[in-house]
Design goal:
- 1% of the residues lie in helices and 37% in strands.
- It is mostly beta strands and 550 residues long.
- The strands form 11 sheets. Strands 4, 6, 7, 9, 10 and 11 form a 6-stranded mixed beta sheet that branches. The protein has a 4-stranded antiparallel beta sheet with strand order 21-22-23-24, with no helix packed on it. The protein has a 4-stranded antiparallel beta sheet with strand order 27-28-29-30, with no helix packed on it.
- The longest helix is centred in the N-terminal third of the chain and has 6 residues.
- It is elongated, with a radius of gyration of 33 Å.
- The relative contact order is 0.08.
Amino acid sequence: MKPAHLRRLGGAVAVALTAGLFAAPAASAHGYGPRVTGTTASPQPRNLSAGTAGDACDRTTAPGWIGLTPGGPTLSATVASRTAGTLSARFSVKDLTTGTAAFGATAEASGGTATTVVPGLADGHRYAWNARALQGHRTSAPSPDCHFGVDLAAPRVAVSSTDFPESGSGRTATKYAGETGTFVLTATDPAPAGGEASGTACFRYALNGTIGVSSGCADGTVKPGPDGTATLALRVPQWGTNILSVEAVDNAGNVSQTATYTFYAPSNPNPPQAPGDVDADGVPDILLPDTAGNLQIISAAAGDTTPTSVVAAQAAPNQTSWTGVQVVHRGWRGHAPMDDVLTHEPGSSVLYFHYNDDAGAFSQRPSTVDRPFRCVDAADVPAACPADFADDWSKADQLVALGSLNGKPNSALLTVENGDLWLFPDPGLRSWLPAARKLTTGGSWTGYDLVAPGPDAAGNLALWARERATGALHAYPIPKLADGTFDFAALADPSAGVVATGFTVDAYPALGSSGDGDGDTVPDLWAVTADRHLLTYRGLANPKDLGVLR
């Protein structure tokens, strides 16, 4: 039996003519009668795999797909006339899969636009439609035929992995937390009988979190191959039970039910360790904000700017953005193998300590670090604090991790305050710093950006600084002496020791170091250009462009 709407339409709409979809009254005289000036469908037909959307109102554009839409899609026609009178539009829809009429309706225009909802379209069928403008007894020529396919069924998704088998499978993981595992994502989008499926466009996923509600296949999704499967290489930072949530999205925008894949990642009994490593992979990291204010963790050994993980902007100390926040992260290791992190906003009286026990996810709120209550001299003997000693962190314009001064994992902290260098030799950083030492006088360090490259193979330290006014890069040796102490004499004159030029603030707004002082393992220096390219250097030369930061 024919559907009710086809029974009502009867034989008048059963045959499509070569010139258009359906027979119609004669068109009005050109120029003065009603006319159709535009046609659109809502939701707009789309093909997410190709990243295209449109109504395909010509003979060359590939038609898109309309997904499950309550009530059916809405068709709109913009109609106009040079003469006064009520305007309407007559809509005609043809099922191209069966070659039969599917729908017809007339709707009065409001504000020059007439709309109608098309119910009962068949899953997997392709359709063509047009509209004619009506005014009294006059009828326009039909608009060009527009086209779309209908996909009313969401795909189904499954997940598997041999690196991290599903909990309850009886199999053992072959990799540890902190390592990258391979997950196979499989989607099925079967075609209905006598019809077509739009096909899977992408997979959306989240590890130990909730998949975002944004539609489509934006950044962070994975596209399947022709067989409907995709291989997801995913670093698992957290030991213990993990949950990978995956959804499949078809080309019409239908979203599958969320598949939850639960697995166990064992802890590594011999984790790799490197100062500056935040995400527990044994390689120092570069921490930089993206354009949205999130904090990117980028491996210093990476070949491009793809972050290994991203910390949300809401996890910043101000709970808004990491942009403008000073992030110091090399050398504080109350636990292996990950570095803890210090953060400070210029002008703030508060220095924050981020305890990193989740491989750089920073899920805990940071604690505050008290200002030292005593000062020491060059021999590490308690001494009276200078008159300009501050009791909070508001005068700390810059902070860098200089390196360990006592062979322990913790790095010394170096700051610029009122134009002078201050050293905090052995910061415990759980809640307090034991001592402070003023290294320079005269305020001559104003106008320099500090970079700490870390110890060399012999344990000697160094400080680099970019002179903002000239773009000159200076190097100041801090040799380790026979008695185990360090000689800071080279820091007395910041204008000495030029080793490179051209590092202007305009060309390179940001400079830093991953902390590998000899440059053998990872680059010594990194820089961000004015157009947000990330460059890494072996030593101070031969920059490698990793590409544009997000």
